[in-house]
Amino acid sequence: MPSSPSDPPLPSASAGPRTAEEMAEQVAAFRRDVQRLQAEVAKVIVGHESIVEGVIIALLAGGHVLLEGVPGLGKTMLVRTLAEAVDLTFSRIQFTPDLMPADILGTNVLVEQSDGRARSFEFQRGPIFAHIVLADEINRATPKTQSALLETMQEGAVTVSKTTYRLPQPFFVLATQNPLEMEGTYPLPEAQLDRFFFKLKVSFPSREALHTILERTTGAQEIHASKVITGPRLLELRELARQVPVARTVQDYAIRLLQGTHPENLGRDGVPVIEPVRRFVRYGASPRGAQALLLGAKIRALLDGRFAISAADVRTVARPALRHRIILNFEGEAEALDPDTLIDAVLQQTREPGA
Amino acid sequence: MDSVRSTSGPAPAASLAPLRQVLLRVRWRLRLQAAVVGAVEGGLAGAVVLLVVTLACRLGWLPAPSLWRAAMVGGALPLAGALVRAARRISLLEVAGRVDHTHALQDRVASALQFAAAPPLPGESELLRELALRDAVAQVPIIQPARAAPWYFPPRLPLLGALLALVGLAALVRVPSPPAPSPVSQPMSQRLQVLQVEPELLAPEREEVARLLAEAERTWDETLREVALEMQRLLEQIERGELTRKEAFDRLAELEQRLMEGRGGVLEALRERLRKAGADLGRDRLAREVGRALEKDDLEKARQELERLARMARERAQLSPQKAQQRQQLAQALRTAAESVQPKDEWQDQTEAERRLRQEQALREEERRLKRHLEQHPNDEEAARRLNRVQRELDRLARERQERAEAQRELERLRRDLDRAAEELERQLQQMTPEQRKALQELARDMDRLQDEIRKLAQQHSGQGLSQARLVLGSLKQVLRRVGRTGPGPGGGPGQGTQGSGGGQQGNNPMKDFLERASGKGGGQDADVLVEGEGQGGQQGQQIMILGEGNTPILLPGLRPPGPMGQGSGRDRPGADGIGREHDPNLLGDPRRLDVRLRSTRVVGKEGAGPTRSETILGSAERGFASAPYRKVYQDYTAVAEEVMSRERVPPGYRFYVKRYFQLIKPRE
Fold this sequence. Notes:
The complex is a heterodimer.
Chain A: H1 20-44, H2 49-61, E1 65-68, H3 75-85, E2 86-87, E3 90-94, H4 101-105, E4 106-112, E5 119-125, E6 132-136, H5 143-155, E7 157-160, E8 163-166, E9 172-177, H6 190-193, E10 198-201, H7 207-217, E11 229-230, H8 231-242, H9 248-260, H10 275-280, E12 281-283, H11 287-303, H12 311-322, E13 327-328, H13 330-334, H14 339-349
Parallel strand pairs in A: 1-9, 1-10, 2-11, 3-6, 6-9
Antiparallel strand pairs in A: 4-5, 7-8, 12-13
Helix pairs in contact in A: 1-2, 1-3, 2-11, 9-11, 9-12, 11-12, 12-14
Chain B: H1 2-8, H2 12-15, H3 17-58, H4 65-86, H5 92-103, H6 108-117, H7 126-138, H8 145-148, H9 157-172, H10 188-191, H11 203-219, H12 222-240, H13 245-261, H14 265-282, H15 288-295, H16 299-316, H17 324-341, H18 350-376, H19 381-430, H20 434-461, H21 464-484, E1 489-490, H22 508-518, E2 539-540, E3 545-547, E4 553-555, H23 627-647, H24 652-664
Antiparallel strand pairs in B: 1-2, 3-4
Helix pairs in contact in B: 3-4, 3-5, 3-9, 5-6, 6-7, 11-12, 11-21, 12-13, 12-21, 13-21, 14-15, 14-17, 15-16, 16-20, 17-19, 18-19, 19-20
């Protein structure tokens, strides 16, 4: 279902803008579409604006999101609402220890023809074949199943019996995990965590937000989000976001932030010595972290109506882009150190361009 | 896409022109601000320099002109600091970053500058870049250079103000000079600076130099006159403080060298005449040896030859008159020699006599005027000093007149003896009677007397003028050492001090302690012996001495003599062998002697503090010298000594010793 008929016609993606004015109009349309999507999600999800924004940024950047939070905070509702607001297919997979990869990816089954004479194997697509996939409590599945999911996340395709099946585009995975119930879970390995574009922490809503939640969910009327954006439009928005130029100084800032998470780089090549990083980090964020920083910053800049990213954009997306990519050492683990503390230290001690 | 952009809007570089202008204005303000900060920092450095130099000048460590140079440097440093800071490179990108930061422009300006300078990366939209440039240019109206580069108070300006205030205080406040500039406490640097000598200390030298000048004029000795004039100039320069210690000693060394090379004075004049007489005598065969000896200035040989001639005369008085012609020749030679010996009497010179008379009359008149003045103003110390000086000058003139008369009498006596010898010879030629023998015997006696006269003449005038000048130089050197010396110990003098013998390895403390006690400050330790000496050991020793004849140090009574290493400068004096070179090698006898009486002794050790081999003698009272009574005694004795010297005939050299002695024992202020 495309956008409503009252919206101005979108420029043709295939033709592309011919002038700066047309490009400016595309940027404005980008902002409008995203704001409409945010508003539609906000009809259902209350008090998680930053989470919604993070999820939308990851969606527009073509990445996947890991949502972490205690049960009952609306993680699943958020993903479901997003899927409703976007005219895309949605599937939800509840990860359990006995979940097998075939349960996610699909499997070949023996199919008898209608005439009853011939039988053949036919691939039955699993729930992964959807535009938006909710991998609920992903840490409850075995690593084998986790890795099957994460491989499809990275490749955008499923290979079964030497046959590769492309996943629909846009393909967007939102995984959730509960940080409290660690009994009987299989924490995601660092290499697989790195495949998530953002890791968003869902916090407990405020009192005002709780009032709204109660009013909306305990009444007779059930609120649902309507579809405001289509899949192709989402792909156009992705393409536009990737065209946002980046100044060298801002890119250098993102790199210096990334280097600041690596204890072995501290004090060298203009990177300041950040004591918490030196003390608690075993290994810093991977280059995927810098990619996430810049891509997220580009979308942030477009959402802000600017045509180039700034250091502030980078700073804004630094936490969700880096927090799951920093590997703590034993001391950091023993101290139960929050990686956000380390990222704050890095942000504080890394000089911004022009400062 | 490029064609579209070229038709749809201005080129990025052109569109950035207003942005660049704003950025240039911001940069100009940044430069100006940096120049102010640089000027303040340079001013800080300059103020520190100025403060240090001002204090050094106030304390006398640096001469006053250094202050002007420091002021110029202090003024130039802020300018240099401003220039250096203002010339520092400030890129436009840096300025753009500052503008973004201060105006919350989200890196619009800095990004635009970079987009305009570099081509787009693959995948980047040129249209978005152009939009970014336009967006940045659109921010120009809200960009305020004053906001991007605000004027701020240089943080170190208060410090600069405080330093300048300190400089002003240091320039205004007069640092009191130390009450008693103890030579011990004076730093080495000050010694190396200008030599400050009280004029009163050099009074004896001035008088001696004046006397030498008069002597040189009297004897027409150009060398002595030049040396005396040079010494006079040197004294004046030292009094005016125009020379450093090193320069003064260099000049003294130069003068000494000239004196060593110089020949002249009275002795030279007399010898010249004797040489002429010798040449005349040399024409006679009999008196040839006398003439040669006189020509060679060998007075001893001349005396021996004359003695031989006298003996010959006695012998020949017994001989026949065949030798008459020889005798006549000898008589003629003696007469010619007598004419040669006859001195030119300067006192006969009317002009010179009148000049000296006028000088003496003027001094008499000045003396009378000063006496009248002192009767009316008995407390006028300056007049008293001048009167004293005039009286001493009159005494000096009187002594000179007396000495000249004495010298004239000596020469006259010599001339008469020669004349008489010649007459006796002529008389012998005329009649060789028994009286002739007697006459010849008289001639022999005359010859003997002539020998005595020559010996006396040699003794009286031997080296008097020039050695007196050397004496004055040595005395002056001693005064300068005393004045310039800031403390005993190693290296205390300009390489001329010596290590005194007899345990002269005393450190600074004993001397300092002694001087402190002497100035009434008391001391915490027992003093040893006051010593100050000079020699060649390279260290300042601790013997006290007065300057002896020919710079020979003379120890004060009761003090230890210089030991083996204490070579004094008395070697300069011809004939002097120095003092304290070494012990007599046979002081303890021949160590190989066997005929000695042996005596076995046994030393039994005793526990506890036994008798010591050395004993410390208190050299000064615990509370310092009783300076007031001593000063009175000193004045009384000085007056007595002056009176005696003016009343009695004292050789000039000894007058100098007496003056120097009283100067050395003069109580310290």
